[in-house]
Amino acid sequence: VLALEGNDTLDKCSYKLEHVGKLVHLRHLKLGRIGISELPKEIGHLKLLLVLDLGRNSISELPESIGRLSELKCLNICETDIEVPYWIGNLTSLEELCLGRVHGHSNFVTELGKLTELRKLHIFKSVYVYGGSRMNSWAESVAKLSKIQVIDIDFFLGCRDSSHEENPWERIVLSPQIRVLHMSYLEPGMVARINPSLLPNLSHLKLHVCSPELEVFGSFRELVALKLETVSTLHHDTIGAFPKLRFFRTEATLDSFQEGDMPVLESLQFEVVAQSSDDGISFGFDFASLGNLPLLKRVVVTLYAPRADVDQKKAENTAKRAMDMLPNRVEHSIIPRATENWRRR
Length: 345
Fold this sequence. Notes:
This protein has six helices and 18 strands. By secondary structure, the chain is α/β, with parallel strands linked by helices. The chain has a single domain (about 1-250), classed as Ribonuclease Inhibitor (Leucine-rich repeat, LRR (right-handed beta-alpha superhelix), Alpha-Beta Horseshoe), CATH 3.80.10. The strands form two sheets. It has a 16-stranded mixed β-sheet that branches. Helix 2 links the parallel strand 6 and strand 7 (about 150-155). The longest helix has 16 residues, at about 310-325. It is elongated, with a radius of gyration of 24 Å. The mean pLDDT is about 90. Keywords: Leucine-rich repeat, Repeat. This is Disease resistance R13L4/SHOC-2-like LRR domain-containing protein.
């Protein structure tokens, strides 16, 4: 094991690595934040290397010799400027892969399918996939990851040329071993593959949905954290749903909560639209119903209200008073927004 950990004040010449290739028995190499901007090609001589961790450096390119490290099980380049190398598919023993950004021109959408031993995929920044052919290649590659347990992508921007194209998600089945699925982009065919019978171990989910129905997500018995990206009003009426859900975040508005809903929920973030009339401020959500969530500790509300200062302030105060009256003393915060911004979505 060789682990070098520096700090952000180091200059680019702090460490010299030209002799690291002579450590032929090395299994674990961590070079974290040590001020390096390139790696020697001799690193490819480390045939027994299992872990290569290069996080938080100024490296922009990996030497191609790393593609010959046939035993490598973990590669971390997530907090670097490294573009995903075109030969990434050669590392067929990889079980954990952490990347920074996948650009639109990258061949990663096809190379990913060669990494059939992969258990964990983390993409720290973003993935860009443009066009029906590349979108299909991405879906087919993900489906080949039969051992995958974690797909954690911070931001995914994918688009097709036409909504009438063939969609491979209609025939694809994701690995039933998946526990964490953070892969949110507009792909209706994919949403149909996210159900408890196919993914029984799912505990963390981030997804873009078009349907306002929550029933299918409430049926995941192991689901702990849920983030849904949608502009619909979400609702459900299934008693006993979400038995283990502790964290729920959505960009949508919600119906009121009934007794027995989300019985162990601790953290909630959602959006509310305020209406102003001669009778005062009203909401489409009943804040008092938050009292039906017995373990709730924290609420964050994005509150859309008419732009007039008096109406916005009145809406904030009305919502705040309603949450102050909750029996379970919930910590809460309100993020004010103008109603016009809601209508533009």
